[in-house]
Amino acid sequence: MQLLYSTKMWLKKSETPLAKKMMSLINTIRFLEVPTISIVHQTLYWLHISIEKFISNVMRICYWTPMFKSQLSKSGKRFYLYSGMPMVLGGVKISVGDDVRMSGISTLCGRSSNTGKAELIIGNNVDIGWQNSINVGGRIVIEDNVRLAGKVMLSGFPGHPLNAEKRAKGLPEEGHQVGDIVLKKDVWLATGVIVMAGVTIGEGTVVAAGSVVTHDLPAGVIAAGMPAKVIKQIGEQS
To answer: Which member of 41, 160, 176, 215 is catalytic?
Structure first.
């Protein structure tokens, strides 16, 4: 490896004719391109996408979905899981309603020091998007028609204590750091929203991208910011 690295550095830095010719040849090979033949490569692209989708659907139907549903205490009708299977950690009890769509690139986690007592309840017609992290301290309830965009975090517990000595010893968070989270019907959390422990978000409320929700929000409002604050009632003119 050292010889390979030394040779690479010599080729990049040397001003000798041999090094320059070799570097030129390497770059010529490195940036070779095959001409695009429209009808040929469009057909190949279509075949590639079709095969990829077919394999993905077979895996979804026959492998990922039944494996994940085996970990649920309740599974509703027409559950649609895509992009693999969510990671389930910490002994969380999960129930899922009807017509739920969930990205497999998500993490559903129960509090490690409370194994078997954490409960995640997902209602009907709920979307749980890409890279969501749902950390259940005691109980998280996601009611009907809720939409969670990508990279949303529901943080029912922090995972570590505030005391530095306890944290260094690998001890879990303390009870006062843990809280339930409730998302009422028709809530929409945009990309990157974080909801902290102990928060209830009222029916129909929309939280703007990148916001951090640290306190309860009322029904029927748009909220934004860090921490999130109500900026207007839904239906109000700008």
So the answer is: 160
Dist CA 209 CA 189 (whole Å): 7
Contact 177, 221 (CB under 8 A): no
Is 160 a residue of the active site? Answer: yes
Q: Distance (Å, rounded) from C-alpha 200 to C-alpha 214?
A: 10
Q: How far apart are CA 194 and CA 213, in angstroms?
A: 6
DSSP 73-138: SEE-TT-EEESS--EEETT-EEEE-TT-EEESS-EEEE-GGGTTT-EEEE-SS-EE-TT-EEEESS
Helix (H/G/I), strand (E/B), else coil: 220: coil
pLDDT digits (tens, 9 = 90+) for 185-224: 999 999 999 999 999 999 999 999 999 999 999 999 999 9
Whole-angstrom distance, CA of residue 124 vs CA of residue 97: 5
pTM of the predicted protein model? 0.83
User: Is the bond into 35 cis (omega within 30 degrees of 0)?
Assistant: no
Q: How far apart are CA 227 and CA 139, in angstroms?
A: 22
